[in-house]
Amino acid sequence: xxxxxxxxxxxxxxxxxxxxxxxxxxxxxxxxxxxxxxxxxxxxxxxxxxxxxxxxxxxxxxxxxxxxxxxxxxxxxxxxxxxxxxxxxxxxxxxxxxxxxxxxxxxxxxxxxxxxxxxxxxxxxxxxxxxxxxxxxxxxxxxxxxxxxxxxxxxxxxxxxxxxxxxxxxxxxxxxxxxxxxxxxxxxxxxxxxxxxxxxxxxxxxxxxxxxxxxxxxxxxxxxxxxxxxxxxxxxxxxxxxxxxxxxxxxxxxxxxxxxxxxxxxxxxxxxxxxxxxxxxxxxxxxxxxxxxxx
Length: 295
Ligand code: G1P
What we know:
Layout lengths: L3 E2 L2 E2 L1 E5 L20 E2 L2 E2 H11 L4 E6 L4 H6 L4 H9 L3 H11 L3 E6 L6 H6 L2 H4 L4 E4 L3 E4 L4 H12 L2 E7 L9 E5 L7 E9 L10 E9 L3 H6 L11 H9 L4 E5 L3 E4 L3 H13 L2 H16 L1
Parallel strand pairs: 3-6, 3-8, 6-7, 10-14
Antiparallel strand pairs: 1-2, 4-5, 8-13, 9-15, 10-13, 11-12, 12-14
Helix pairs in contact: 3-4
The structure holds 1-O-phosphono-alpha-D-glucopyranose (G1P).
């Protein structure tokens, strides 16, 4: 069933304009979002989550050197012609399905001024309805897609909802972290403050912000009023702090397993885990890993 906002379907925004410096040299000339997880680019998992959550209108915020993303979600005429000629119906269906996944739009972020600024680039497309933001560094596997869980919470409470999860002390400095009040409901907390990338000592809790948000359109004015923060960038977390002065924001501890693609080691671990989920690779890969451990 499609998740709706009143009469309109919810739109989603996927920021994908970053330089991907944590993956150099691979990302010198290729988008980080196209890094493969077994046989699909990372961004396809994110788009599939949005589609499985009932979202059909997707805006990808791109930048210089990101053409491969647009090509991936477009029709590949020559390839389809060859597959048709080879009577490879299975691959043909698979390839065609990617181009038909959703209604995908693109807007370019001309300057890399931060995540908040990237979200602001979506204002014209999003208009005056609440919308979802999905970050490509986070992949979530769950029976009910993470974004759908957030939309369900939004539909109940009609306030911005942010996905969070407990984060170990050793990693807290890589997240936006929330300070919260007593739970309103199972796994739902009113946010009282947010800090982007705090030190272990500064962190107001152990609940880190995951890359899934449902935001009300009031966030756009808040971003405009946000000065550069951590790393000299306009941070979405700081804009949410502004929004908190005007409206409540709830944090939701989602159900599911989240995989981080933020750096090379995390990507390696995620790749292995995703491959182990696939029946066709599982046994041979496990055998290979066992041999590596004992050799
Ligand atoms: C961004 C957000 C941060 C959030 C994180 C989740 O940081 O700014 O608040 O916790 O995504 O992945 P980034 O990882 O892009 O530096």
